[in-house]
Design brief:
single chain, alpha/beta, Rossmann fold, Isoleucyl-tRNA Synthetase, Domain 1, 4-stranded antiparallel sheet, 14% strand
């Protein structure tokens, strides 16, 4: 196995990755809340953990990758009050909530497929695990770290912290400051402290999505689902829990508290978080109304709230993927057309070099030393998935390939094969790029034939029968039949 270092948000340091069970990795990543089309902000965690999934498999691990679908329990503003995001969408569009969830789940899958994101091993839905969530809430109640209030169940953060002294460790928040905050939120009077979070919510009469429970007819809290499903499919302790940086608090902090309350420890060994996509320095998100959907990127059309066109052109899925991979997953990425156009050029340059490799003529000797390139690529990806450095090494490959193609350098057949292997392993298998720059040969043939027929048509118009007949005869010798008709000439192979 390669020595992989990953940054653990919990310890704020890079650590050597060592799975709980040798040769096997359990990984849970928070998936989308499916009430709208996926945007660029959704693409980043999906691509980040796709890279990790691909690389862990590449170096020999058997990986169980669980990424959930949130289709219930995620209220507006990530809070414990307000309306369920999916139920609100269903009400506005006069649809069943599960109809909304299914529609946007399908749309999410389509967008991720186009981005080259591999499907997870298991993709559980929150609505399909209500029983497990009710059982989890009961265990936390039995352990004494939750209380029932008017049919809702809340996690007692103060009591939990008094015993375990760990609430706020992941996010760096000071629990004493959270507990001393004056209660100001409407509908929060049933909580003992504003820092307490809902494990189960009693449904209001107008709430569409509801299930029977020992405490009320209601629905699970947002944080409950991931603890229940992570435990079900990966056990009480698994290797990696991932998600976006915006989930550190309250979502992941609450997950740690829930699991610790019933087992005495958190759910995983390594917490990994990717940073956000920003527009003008502000987080891209549905709640802020400043997002651009992936379909809009692919189509090249999006207008801001003032009606101004935000996109200068359409951007292919691989351009979007390459754009995201050009930055380290823990750094911010700020959207701009200039950055995307630059990414498109860089991606095209790599793809062109990858096609050139097979056309290089080998020499007896290499004038370029490429002996350390493969290891440099491994060193980059092993250093906390440093995709920008890895891409810089792939550009070194492209530079060598172009030099040989221009006869400014030479490579032996073994070195040509080595460069081909490096490109296949790191650009295609690990980074998950695919070549979208290949030209459709049928379109090329049609285009060339139309040019030839236009030249012949001009010759006929000028009564240049010699040239006209020569073109027809030469094409016929190649097995191409030219047919003259009222609408002009056509061809068949």
């Amino acid at each position: 196995m390669q020595p992989l270092l990953i940054y653990n948000t919990l310890t704020h340091s890079k650590e050597l990755f060592k799975p709980i069970n040798e040769g096997h990795v359990g990984m849970y990543v928070c998936g989308p809340t499916v009430y709208g089309d996926a945007h660029l902000g959704h693409a980043r965690p999906a691509i980040t953990f796709d890279i990790l999934f691909r690389y862990l498999q590449h170096i020999g691990y058997k990986v169980r990758y669980v990424r959930n679908i949130t289709d219930v329990g995620h209220l507006e503003h990530d809070a414990d009050d307000g309306e369920d995001k999916i139920a609100k969408k269903a009400r506005l569009e006069q649809l069943e909530p599960m109809e909304v969830a299914q529609f946007y789940t399908n749309r999410y899958h389509d967008a991720m497929d186009r981005l080259g994101v591999m499907r997870p091993s298991i993709e559980p839905h929150a609505s399909g695990h209500i029983i497990e969530q009710i059982e989890l809430v009961q265990k936390i109640l039995d352990a004494g770290f939750a209380y029932v209030s008017d049919g809702s169940v809340y996690f007692d953060v103060q009591k939990f912290h008094q015993q375990f002294k760990c609430y706020g460790k992941l996010s760096g928040r000071v629990i004493e400051e959270m507990l001393s905050t004056t209660r100001q939120l409407d509908g929060q009077e049933e909580k003992r402290n504003t820092a307490d979070f809902a494990l189960w919510k009693k449904a209001a009469p107008e709430h569409i999505m509801r299930w029977n429970s020992p405490w009320s007819v209601g629905f699970p809290g947002w944080h409950t689902e991931c603890t229940a499903m992570g435990t079900k499919y990966l056990g009480e302790t698994f290797d990696i829990h991932g998600g976006g940086l915006d989930l550190v608090f309250p979502h992941h902090e609450s997950e740690i508290a829930q699991q610790t309350a019933i087992t005495g420890h958190g759910p995983c060994r390594y917490w990994m978080h990717c940073n956000m996509i920003t527009i003008g320095g502000q987080k891209m998100g549905k709640s802020l109304g400043n997002f651009i959907t992936l379909d809009e990127f692919f189509n090249g059309s999006h207008k801001d709230k003032d009606g101004n066109e935000m996109l200068l052109q359409a951007y292919s899925p691989m351009t979007i993927r390459f754009f995201i991979l050009q930055a380290h997953y823990r750094g911010t990425v700020d959207f701009s057309n200039e950055a995307l156009i630059a990414a498109e050029k860089g991606y095209t340059r790599l793809m062109q070099a990858s096609k050139l490799i097979s056309k290089l003529a080998p020499s007896q000797q290499s004038s370029v030393d490429i002996s350390g390139l493969r290891q440099k690529c491994y060193d980059a990806i092993n250093d906390d998935l440093n995709t920008p450095i890895l891409i810089s090494h792939l550009f070194e490959v492209a530079k060598v390939v172009n030099s040989v193609a221009d006869r400014k350098a030479t490579l032996t057949s073994d070195d040509i094969n080595e460069l081909n292997d490096i490109m296949n392993i790191f650009a295609f298998q690990i980074l998950g790029l695919r070549d979208e720059t290949s030209i459709d040969n049928s379109n090329v043939i049609d285009g060339l034939m139309q040019i030839i027929l236009d030249i012949r048509s001009t010759a006929k118009a000028n009564k240049d029968w010699t040239t006209s007949d020569l073109i027809r005869d030469k094409l016929s010798a190649l097995g191409i039949t030219v047919k003259d008709g009222k609408e002009g000439a056509s061809y068949s192979l």
